[in-house]
């Protein structure tokens, strides 16, 4: 029984010297991060398909049970809106091949304008995808959260393809006005949709966004601690990504989330001890 937890990236300036050794060559940072967390969001692939050599480096730095949840590139999801992007899709899938089992889920994040009327395009796209991967879809159109008929139609499309629905839970962020520059920036950019916590498959993926205040982040994830513990007891294998607006404490928070779930499910395998950020001293 394993719970995978991670962050939105594997390197971040505030982590250097605290969570990750510093200085550290770029091609070693993922290896160090992987001692803290056993999963990571692949957000950079949204902006450009990486070179195969870069993906080979990611594979070398992680064990086969490490999980990447990699986002399909913007031309496929946002510019072409899932239609007529076969060449881009083939290039992306070829680039991801070196990850092997580490490419746990391919993440199809759709724009807020992609609504119920577009479900035919999503269904057709999912049917064309190779069965060699797991797929998960993140939607942001409010109809999917507020209109039961639209929600049911989307679930039917996903069920037909064995795909998961990724919730991006921003409810904690929007509970009260922002108190930092990072929170104010997040208020202008992050989707404001109701929380959804029903898994469709045996491998649910959750994205949780808290606050820059650790206490408020922890209080806001109580719902997810119980939900994830329940999924584990059901035999599911979840992956949870912990975000905050500044992400300064994200690796430690991800591990804390894992610890809180393990307190409810003692048979859950613990995370390994992380690599020290600084070398040991003699005194």
From TrEMBL:
InterPro entries: DUF72, UPF0759_sf. It holds the Pfam family DUF72. Residues 172-196 are annotated as: Disordered. This is Uncharacterized protein YecE (DUF72 family). It comes from Actinomadura viridis. The lineage of its organism: Bacteria, Bacillati, Actinomycetota, Actinomycetes, Streptosporangiales.
């Amino acid at each position: 029984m394993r719970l995978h937890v991670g962050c939105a990236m594997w390197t971040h300036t505030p982590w250097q010297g605290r969570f990750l050794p510093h200085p550290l060559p770029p091609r070693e940072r993922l290896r160090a991060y992987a001692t803290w967390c056993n999963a990571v969001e692949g957000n950079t692939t949204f902006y450009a398909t990486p070179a195969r050599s870069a993906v080979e480096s990611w594979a070398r730095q992680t064990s086969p049970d490490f999980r990447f949840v990699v986002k399909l590139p913007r031309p496929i999801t946002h510019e072409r809106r899932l239609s007529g992007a076969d060449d881009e899709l083939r290039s992306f899938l070829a680039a991801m091949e070196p990850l092997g089992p580490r490419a746990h889920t391919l993440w199809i994040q759709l724009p807020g304008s992609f609504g119920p009327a577009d479900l035919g395009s999503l269904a057709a796209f999912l049917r064309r995808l190779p069965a060699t991967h797991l797929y998960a879809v993140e939607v942001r159109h409010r109809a999917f959260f507020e209109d039961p008929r639209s929600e049911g139609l989307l679930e039917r499309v996903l069920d037909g393809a064995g795909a998961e629905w990724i919730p991006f839970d921003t409810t904690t962020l929007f509970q009260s006005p922002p108190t930092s520059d990072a929170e104010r920036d997040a208020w202008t950019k992050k989707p404001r949709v109701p929380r959804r916590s029903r898994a469709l498959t045996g491998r649910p993926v959750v994205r949780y966004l808290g606050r820059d205040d650790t206490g408020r982040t922890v209080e806001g994830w109580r719902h997810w601690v119980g939900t994830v513990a329940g999924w584990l007891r059901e035999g599911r294998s979840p992956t949870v990504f912990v975000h905050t607006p500044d992400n300064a404490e994200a690796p430690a928070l991800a591990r804390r989330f894992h610890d809180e779930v393990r307190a409810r499910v003692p048979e859950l395998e613990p995370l390994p001890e992380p690599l020290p950020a600084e070398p040991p001293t003699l005194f």
